[in-house]
Amino acid sequence: MEDFYILDTTLRDGEQTPGVDFTMEEKLEIATMLDKAGVGVIEVGTPAMGQEEIQIIKKINDLGLKCELITWNRLSKSDIDSSIKTGIKNVHIGVPVSDIHIYNKLKKSREWIIETLKELVTYALDKGCKVSVGAEDASRADLDFLIEFYKTAESLGVCRVRYADTVGALDPFTVYENIKIIRSEINIDIDFHGHNDFGMATANALAACRAGAKYISATVNGIGERAGNTSLEEIVASLKYIGKYKTNFDMKQIPVLSKYVEKASGIKLSKNKPLVGEAVFSHESGIHVDGLLKDRRTYEFIDPTEIGRESEFVLGKTSGKASVKNAMEKLGMKLDDDKISKMLEKVRKGESLEKKKEPLKKLKYKVVGIFSGEIKLPFIFP
Ligand SMILES: [Zn+2]
Known about the structure:
Layout: E1 5-8, H1 24-37, E2 41-45, H2 51-62, E3 68-73, H3 77-84, E4 90-96, H4 99-105, H5 110-126, E5 130-136, H6 143-156, E6 160-165, H7 172-185, E7 189-194, H8 201-210, E8 215-218, H9 232-242, H10 254-265, E9 282-283, H11 286-294, E10 312-313, H12 321-330, H13 337-357
Parallel strand pairs: 1-2, 1-8, 2-3, 3-4, 4-5, 5-6, 6-7, 7-8, 9-10
Helix pairs in contact: 1-10, 5-6, 7-8, 8-9, 11-12
The structure holds zinc ion.
Zinc ion (ZN) binds at residues 13, 164, 166, 193, 195, 225, 229.
């Protein structure tokens, strides 16, 4: 039994990122990688989009993955009929629940939502489907109405409900309070679906989990509408390493999954993207390198090899003697203090001179695993 499950929606909400359009091969590969990493559920797509989407989802279903697969549907019978054509009889029905969505987007009423929910869930259950229900824009909905909505869904026999912070409007404190209240009102699993409009999607998901949400919706690299969704890698690592939650998720799959989705989505990761950015385990400053060489934990909270990454030391303007000494020792050269100081001067000067001409890269040396060895020679060393 795991403490939480990831409900990955890279193939559904992630693909809704403007400009992202995965090919069938890419979707099959992403689904396979997600399953291998150990997600609990994959939201595979929206069958109502048409025949092509249905065919792709069928192929994903044919992969015979271990994890649960669900399709995304609007509050419509024809959507559910399209889903059934995929062979996956596990439907998620997304239902707008805030007044902004009910009255201004749908031009309907709260009563209509409850009645149609009853009708549609019953329809899907009668067709032999497993059903989960999502509350779209739950974060801006009236809490009493939201609870009525969830209780209705529970009484109809759905297996799980989603709390969607559709526009990323919440902070972790409110998420915690709201989920705690909902948790005390219903007895089925809650899935938290967050967006990152204020940079709080990961913190919000962590708060939701602490308040009793068992499922966390996420996408690889956090791709998704606007500022994106909760990042799969960020939330899974935060829950494990900060929250101390039990999970069978294979952390070592994170870099390869992230790289693949970066390429397939065309959305470049920033260098300092937590956990997966190119530079997040690079160290240059003299004080930090000196500390790391004495005890890695001084400046790294987790051992990067835990998540399939490696530490890297970079020589540059802020380097100190410990960096140079370590680099030279790795190269098999023992230098006295004076020589190291001279070399450090060169490193610092070299960097500032070279910076102007571009090849900053040349100054880097890489230690694969801080204690293991292997160095790439910087040009500055003879
Ligand atoms: Zn969403």
